[in-house]
Amino acid sequence: MARDGRTTRGEAGPVTPDAPRGATQPPEPATQPIPVASGAPTERVERRREPADAPVPGDRRERRAAARRGPTRGWVVAGVAAAVALVTAVGIAACGTSSDGGGDAGGAPVAPAASEFWVDPASSAARQVEAWRAEGRSDEATALEKIARQPVAIWPTGETGGVEGEVAGVVSQARAAGRTPVLTAYNIPNRDCGLYSSGGAENEDAYREWLGAFARGMGGNRAVVILEPDALPQTLTNCEGEGEQEGREELLAEAVRTLTRAGGEVYIDAGNPGFVTNVDELAGGLRTSGVGEAAGFALNVSNFMTTDQVRAYGDRVSDAVGGARYVIDTSRNGNGSYEGPEQPTWCNPPGRALGAPPTRDTGSPRVAAFLWVKEPGDSDGDCRGAPAAGEFWPQYALDLANNTPGD
Fold first, then answer.
1. Which helix (H) or strand (E) element contains residue 182?
2. Please, are residues 274 and 13 in contact by the beta-carbon 8 Å criterion?
3. Which of 4, 120, 230, 380 is labelled catalytic?
4. Domains in the chain and their CATH numbers?
5. Where are the alpha helices (DSSP H) in 18-157?
6. Segments in 222-328 forming alpha helices (H)
7. Staple 298 to which of 54, 109, 267, 343, CB 3.0 to 4.6 Å?
8. Are 373 and 267 in contact (CB under 8 A)?
9. What does DSSP assign to residue 239?
10. What are residue 165's phi and psi, to 5 degrees?
11. Could you tell me where the Basic and acidic residues compositional bias lies (predicted)?
């Protein structure tokens, strides 16, 4: 599944890719952060995308990273820790103004949900809440808080020169807040088989260099890492006619080892029930990709399939790989997959809803966590009046929130 949420060719039927306000004090993380390794940077590095070269004007990923880091520069880690600790104590997260859509402060910042996982105070949804409040659109702002207060995975830049600083910035803020960050490593060579989310590292050596920078940014601190959405499933399906990715499973195994040593709780992406239907084949790919050294595997990333569907499939895969645990992306699966007549079914389908909020309390010993790997509201592509893939679409986010029961 591409990050843009499209259905990968070869999937069955209408399969599409990818809570109450929390208490004022978040619970203790399930696992304490690993102490920062010696030599880790003491200064908070800005979460820049391309510090060595100016970003391409209009680049969406750079604008979103800039929006998250806000207008303030040059903070030191100690200052961040003190500021975040103070904010957490009163049950709010500070929202910085945005360079691409945020407005002036229009009310109290969004209170993060009580969760082990870190909530980005400058997420797209949080900035939209702030902007709508400033415009007097209080009903819409309140509805969108269903998304803004939940932890969502961060997808760091694919630029080797920028990834270490961005990951370090996320990890330092999460550590100061006493929470665990969720990161998505998405930069494998020939990413998405050259299709909608094409790109990635130029070659295997460049990818190893990028992984090393990613790992240095983690600095020995605990982080959940979703490893390379689509990479293994596409390899097993020969990239849908684009040629088998030779050596990709071994490269994923290297990534597992590198990120695990850096403090990562690594889950190898394994697609969804409609992607690789041969469970034995998927299990073999997972074993070669290092699932035995990883925390487990990930399912339903950027997809809409119901949690029950995914769990039935996930348990079969788990049985085939010796009981490995897995995580499920529940960000947009509240109403399941779209089965209406409008095409394409994968692209910003109408009538969808938010799924279960991120939590370790899944009710199943096999399911390590429900996570929001894709940010609800991120466009799947320029269909149904939406912006380009990856852009935050406020109206779609609002529809997801309004279609979800509860406050």
1. strand 182-185
2. yes
3. 230
4. 1-407 (3.20.20.40)
5. 60-69, 77-89, 124-134, 138-148
6. 231-236, 248-261, 279-288, 307-320
7. 267
8. no
9. G
10. -65, -40
11. 43-65
For 335-362, the pLDDT digits (tens) are: 999 999 988 888 899 999 999 999 999 9
pLDDT tens-digit series, residues 385-406: 999 888 999 999 999 999 999 8
| CA geometry: angle 47, 71, 379, nearest 5 deg | 65
What is the C-alpha radius of gyration for the chain, rounded to an integer number of angstroms? 19
What strands lie across the sheet with 367-371, from one edge to the other?
182-185, 223-227, 264-269, 296-299, 325-329, 367-371
What is the C-alpha separation between 161 and 40, in angstroms, rounded? 16
CA distance 374 to 230: 13
Structure tokens at 383: 């269909």
3-class DSSP state of 263:
coil
Does residue 399 carry a catalytic annotation?
Answer: no
pTM of the model as a whole? 0.77
Residue 353's closest CA among 305, 406, 301, 404? 404
What whole-number distance in Å separates Cα of residue 389 and Cα of residue 397?
Answer: 14
Amino acid at 114: A
pLDDT in tens, 149-199: 999 999 999 899 999 999 999 999 999 999 999 999 999 987 877 666 777
Which residues lie closer than 8 Å to 395 by C-beta, 6 or more apart?
A: none
Burial of 209 per CB tally in 10 Å (0-12, 13-18, 19+):
middle
Cis peptide before 344 (omega within 30 of 0): yes
- Distances 363 to 196, 331, 354 between C-alpha atoms, Å: 35, 18, 19
CB atoms within 10 A of CB 335: 18
Beta bridge partners of 323: none
> In this structure, what are the phi and psi dihedrals at residue 189, rounded to the nearest 5 degrees?
-55, 145
> Which spans in 135-278 are helix H?
138-148, 160-176, 204-218, 231-236, 248-261
- DSSP label at residue 98: -
Q: Residues near 322 by Cβ (< 8 Å), separated by ≥ 6?
A: 292
Measured distance CA(229)–CA(2) in Å, rounded: 7
